[in-house]
Amino acid sequence: MSHAALLVLADGRFPAGGHAHSGGVEAAVASHGVHDAASLEAFCRGRLHTAGLTAAGLAAAAATGYDPMALDEAADARTPVPALRQVARKLGRQMLRAARAAWPCPELDQIAHSLPKGAHQPVVLGVTARAAGLTPSDAAQCAAYESIGGPATAAVRLLSLNPFDATALLARLAGELDDVAHAAADAAARIDAEGVGVLPAASSPLLDITGEQHAAWSQRLFAS
Q1: What is the DSSP letter of 118?
Q2: What is the pLDDT along the chain (224 residues), one digit of tens a residue?
Q3: Are the C-beta atoms of 72 and 58 separated by less than 8 Å?
Q4: Contacts by 37-44 with C-beta closer than 8 Å and gap 24+?
Q5: DSSP H or E segment with residue 134
Q6: Rounded to 10 degrees, what is the CA torsion of 111, 137, 129, 81?
Q7: Please, are residues 76 and 120 in contact by the beta-carbon 8 Å criterion?
Q8: 62, 82, 90, 65: which is closest to 74 by C-alpha?
Q9: Using CA atoms, how far apart are residues 50 and 56, in angstroms rounded to an integer?
Q10: Please, are residues 60 and 185 in contact by the beta-carbon 8 Å criterion?
């Protein structure tokens, strides 16, 4: 396993398009649910244990070499809101472009051929991790971190939040992030025997509702 590859994939400067998305925090700021560092930490913790856990399970499963088409269908089933499905596929398409440039392989080419409108981002992340020589656990870690790193970064812009405070809250969540990644990787290790139903399917109804509302805004700073 290449530790350098893990750093490249997890780097916020990896051109996978995540910088244009807030992970739901823009809508949360607009509704005053997130207004300072403490409320942002609560938001990120909730997102980590729901959307983050689900994404980490899909990414870890894809990194095991499990059929990405079946995982993409499982991702659809775990994303009930059309707006968020569209976001997931848009991010997946952008990540796929970057991944094929960095770690070209037949598996990534096949996803591009089979799903020209984009696969769900966690699935692409997992296949990319495998192409880069990373483990399912690494893929789960990346997905879990993305689920809170994006919102924390976006909140710095939306709230003029001190970036030191945003970084500190991510550090405080590190232990929980490890637990989520471990649970996701453990589930992925059982997928061959138990099928996609073994993967986490934690729901976050408020994120679903506000995600659909956010997509209808005529003016917004972030795409989601």
Answers
A1: -
A2: 567 888 888 888 888 877 888 999 999 999 999 999 999 999 999 999 999 999 999 999 999 999 999 999 999 999 999 999 999 999 999 999 999 999 999 999 999 999 999 999 999 999 999 999 999 999 999 999 999 999 999 999 999 999 999 999 999 999 999 999 999 999 999 999 999 999 999 988 888 899 989 888 988 888 88
A3: no
A4: 37/161, 37/162, 37/165, 37/166, 37/168, 37/169, 40/151, 40/152, 40/155, 40/159, 40/161, 40/166, 40/169, 41/169, 41/172, 41/173, 43/151, 44/148, 44/151, 44/152, 44/169, 44/170, 44/173
A5: none
A6: 40
A7: yes
A8: 62
A9: 10
A10: yes
Rounded Cα gap, residues 222 and 224, in angstroms: 5
The pTM assigned to this predicted structure is: 0.95
Residue for token digits 């992340």? Answer: 125
Q: How far apart are the C-alpha atoms of 112 and 124, rounded to whole Å? A: 10
Residue 139 CB neighbour total at 10 angstroms: 34
Residue 177: is it exposed, middle or buried by C-beta count within 10 angstroms (0-12/13-18/19+)?
Answer: buried
Q: Tokens at residue 122, please?
A: 């966690």
Fill in the amino acid letter for 153. T
